[in-house]
UniProtKB/TrEMBL annotation:
Keyword terms, alphabetized: Membrane, Transmembrane, Transmembrane helix
Alphabetical list of InterPro entries matching this protein: DUF3593
Official protein name in the record: DUF3593 domain-containing protein
Chain ranges passing through the membrane: 6-22, 34-52, 72-89
Length: 96
């Protein structure tokens, strides 16, 4: 099994994870948006990796401007998830 196949297969459990989070209705909205932004990261990383391979003859990790642009969405995703759960914890503490 190649890395590309493993990457593609791993998308299905993540989509199921998102489906269950969304369906439960218990995930803070901002955190849920963060989890969805991770999909943007994935869908940007794939063409960026292909572009890096075709035009630069190397992997995405070796082309700083492409890699940084893709990683921005991973960082944004993480920030949204953390802020969403932080907000939920603060709201729960305020209820006490």
């Amino acid at each position: 099994m190649t890395i590309e196949n493993l990457f593609a297969i791993s998308l299905f459990p993540y989509l199921a994870f998102l489906w269950f989070l969304t369906k439960s209705g218990k995930t803070p909205k901002l955190a849920l948006r963060g989890f969805y932004v991770l999909l943007i990261f994935v869908f940007i990383t794939i063409p960026a990796g292909i572009y890096a391979k075709i035009h630069y003859g190397t992997s995405l990790a070796n082309v700083d401007w492409l890699h940084g642009g893709a990683e921005f969405f991973l960082t944004l995703s993480n920030i949204l998830v953390v802020l969403g759960f932080r907000q939920a914890v603060m709201e729960k503490e305020a209820e006490k």
